[in-house]
Write a structure and sequence with these properties.
The chain contains no helices and 23 strands. It is mostly beta strands and about 350 residues long. It folds into 3 domains: about 150 residues, Immunoglobulin-like; about 100 residues, Immunoglobulins (Immunoglobulin-like), CATH 2.60.40.10; about 80 residues, Macroglobulin (MG2) domain (Immunoglobulin-like).
């Protein structure tokens, strides 16, 4: 008698979740970018082979794709020597794609199952596009038919594709200008249309420092009427500056608008001493002053009887520039005080009031 054993083999199904996120409009609305992520959601290792990430959008909205922040795991920099350089394409039919090229020389690299801080997995690349028509509803979404994540043995993962961008461009800017007054820059901009506009972050950079947020102006939400905004950037040192505004909507999307021209704060023409601010104060205040030529400067504070009670600057050499001195009167009694700036043939005194 012969006994026959039957053995059934089961193959675990490989699953991957793809997501597009972090949508951003920038360069005065002429550029659009977003990130593409992949996350392995099945237990077995699944290695990246020849794979395609396809998105579709309203034809005539975007053109000229460039990919940045490319994941080195899936390029010629792969530690397993498994890939050629990643590439991207745009199509006149309204599609954009990222292509991962497996070169058959290595084992391939495992798609990460670590969701990371954002919960989306590992970034494959950032897609950057030119905005051809800002009046189009982009209707950007996954092309589920052509998107495929494949292993080196031509086995396909079951995909879940998340994310879309089908919002109209939130704000149309009709102007963005600047006017320099001494060491103050007055920024002004006007919108011709606003949709879901939370407001504007104002950012500045100079020759030695990168972009920094310096203020925020509330938006008008939704309006078809022109709206004008202003922001004053005060007490700047001499030098060259660039400005941009970051428009944010209530969904967390944002768009950058750049000031086209560089702003130059020159050397002050004369000595000057500004009124301290705030005034009255308790216990701290700020004193601004200008120095037109390199010279020795003193800034001293006196009480109502003319006695010197505090020395801020003691005959120190200062270059021609705009200056701001922070003064703290902790431990001083309430009352009227005087502060005097002197340098070369210049001397000026102003009154300040401490109220506790």
């Amino acid at each position: 008698m012969m006994t026959v054993f039957s053995v059934n083999y089961s193959v675990s199904q490989n699953t991957v979740t793809n997501t597009i996120a972090n949508f951003s409009l920038f360069n005065n609305g002429s550029k659009f970018k977003f990130d593409v992520y992949s996350l392995r959601t099945s237990a077995p290792d699944f290695r990246m082979g020849n794979s395609s990430y396809f998105l579709k959008y309203t034809p005539g909205t975007f053109s000229n794709v460039v990919i940045t922040n490319v994941n080195p795991k899936y390029t010629v920099l792969s530690s397993t020597n498994s890939y050629n350089e990643m590439d991207s394409y745009t199509y006149s039919s309204g599609k954009v794609s990222i292509q991962v090229y497996y070169n058959n020389l290595g084992p391939g690299d495992v798609i990460s199952n670590d969701p990371g801080a954002n919960g989306l997995g590992e970034r494959i690349a950032t897609i950057n596009l030119d905005v051809v028509n800002q009046n189009n509803l982009p209707d950007l979404k996954w092309d589920n038919i052509n998107t495929a994540v494949v292993d080196p043995f031509f086995q396909y993962a079951v995909l879940t594709n998340n994310g879309a961008y089908n919002e109209p461009l939130p704000v149309e800017l009709s102007s963005f200008t600047s006017v320099v007054s001494g060491n103050e820059v007055n920024l002004s901009w006007t919108t011709s249309l606003e949709q879901n506009n939370r407001g504007f972050e104002i950012e500045r950079k100079n020759e030695i420092a990168d972009w920094k947020k310096i203020g925020f102006v509330e938006g008008s939400g939704n309006t078809n009427a022109p709206v004008s905004y202003i922001y004053k950037d005060k007490f700047l040192a001499k030098g060259k500056y660039n400005y941009r505004i970051k428009q944010l909507d209530f969904n967390g999307n944002f768009e950058y608008f750049d000031l086209n021209s560089e702003v130059n704060i020159g050397i002050p023409a004369v000595y000057s001493l500004a009124q301290n601010f705030p005034n009255p104060f308790n216990p701290a205040t700020k004193i601004n002053f200008t120095v037109p030529v390199n010279s020795r400067i003193s800034l001293r504070i006196y009480d109502i009887n003319g006695r010197e009670v505090k020395t801020i600057i003691n005959n120190e050499m200062r270059n021609a520039d705009y200056y701001s001195a922070d003064v703290n009167f902790s431990g001083f009694s309430s009352g009227v005080y005087f502060y005097t700036l002197s340098g070369n043939d210049f001397i000026q005194t102003k009154k300040m009031t401490l109220i506790k």
